[in-house]
Amino acid sequence: MILTPHIGGSTEEAQEAIAEFAAERLLGYLNRGDTTFSVNLPNVQLAEVSGTHRILHIHRNQPGVLAELNRALASAGLNILGQHLKTDERTGYVITDVDRDYDPEALRELKTVPGTLKFRTLQ
């Protein structure tokens, strides 16, 4: 996953600014699932939501993946509190906020949704 565009900095100040920019992009992805300015994923920037667990699902952009993901969430008894989908020609990125009250074993099924490329949770 590439979270920063290529930026050529020729001065010391530019190099410092680039380092700060890259660190902010990485922390945004790790803490909230943001992919703003990513070169190989759809751009998503969401506010932090308290009292939920955030599920990040990166998948091939093909018909039926979102339906299968939501079917798996429902069959696991997870209540969707919010969901955001963004796609480009090859990749889809779904961020789903769910109630904190669930069996962690229920997440296994989500990893098996056809087309899944990457799956992780933020707590």
Task: Give a quick rundown of the structure.
With 123 residues, this protein is α+β, with helices and mostly antiparallel strands. It has three helices and four strands, in the order αβαββαβ.
Topology record:
Elements: H1 12-32, E1 52-60, H2 65-75, E2 80-87, E3 91-99, H3 108-111, E4 116-122
Antiparallel strand pairs: 1-3, 1-4, 2-3
Features:
123 residues; alpha+beta; four-stranded antiparallel beta sheet; Alpha-Beta Plaits; globular; 3 helices
Main sheet: strand order:
2-3-1-4
Quote the CATH topology of the domain at 52-122. Alpha-Beta Plaits
What's the story with the biggest beta sheet?
A: 4 strands, antiparallel
Oligomer: single chain
Distance between the termini: 21 Å
Mean pLDDT: 82
The residue ranges in which pLDDT falls below 50 over 5 or more consecutive positions are none
Q: Can you give the helix content as a percent range?
A: 25-40%
CATH H-level superfamily title of the domain at 52-122: ACT domain
What does this structure look like?
This protein has a domain at 52-122: 2-Layer Sandwich (Alpha-Beta Plaits), CATH 3.30.70. Helices cover 29% and strands 27% of the residues. It is built from three helices and four strands, in the order αβαββαβ. Strands 2-3-1-4 form a four-stranded antiparallel β-sheet, with helices on both faces. The two termini are 21 Å apart. The model has no long low-confidence stretch (mean pLDDT 82).
